[in-house]
Amino acid sequence: MEVFWSNTNEFFPFFQELAPVSNVERIVYVFVCGEKGTGKTTLIEALLTTHIADPDLPSFPFLQEYTYYGLTERTVLRLVELKREHLYLQEIKELCTHQKHIFVFVYAIDDLPSICYLKTRWIPYAKRLISPGILTAVVENKTDLRSEANRNILSSEFTSYYESSLGMNYTWECSALDRQKVHQIFLQLANLVIREFDLQ
């Protein structure tokens, strides 16, 4: 199935208008997890070309930012930034029960504590939520490299851990300030979701 986009500008060819809720068959949640300072908010903001607040779609108090993008005419992507890993566990678990969703884990390659927090906080939290079939991915974010004196974390240092703990096999490295690359990452995620739906 092809991903249908309409051009808004060079980097963000997302739907400007979505079909009415009654025509939407699937809502896919992308939960973006990570500590403050890893650049996850910047990653999200790079994609926020339009806010579409629809009263017929549910809203939740644990959402920091949200928007909707049309993946196809009848599939909607809802991008979510999770702010606190220990809140609203049951509510998120209920969202993940019957749909295909994605958990994206973000860490800063120049900030060792950010990868430690993924191991000790976000991944254990997600393991209580993720059911078989839910996609998981890691974004190794260069942020804005303010800590250039720090040693960059190599992908290989984390690969074995996240593969063994969650079975994640999608990983990308980019800068949150590189909007074109950010767009490419989420476009790939969109295609992965649609492929999973088509296999059902």
Automatic annotation (TrEMBL):
The molecular function GO annotations come to: GTP binding; GTPase activity
Q: Which UniProt keywords apply?
A: GTP-binding, Nucleotide-binding
Its BP terms in the Gene Ontology are: ameboidal-type cell migration; cellular process involved in reproduction in multicellular organism; developmental process involved in reproduction; hemocyte migration; melanization defense response; small GTPase-mediated signal transduction
Which protein, by its recorded name, is this? Answer: Uncharacterized protein
Q: What PANTHER family does the record point to?
A: RHO FAMILY GTPASE
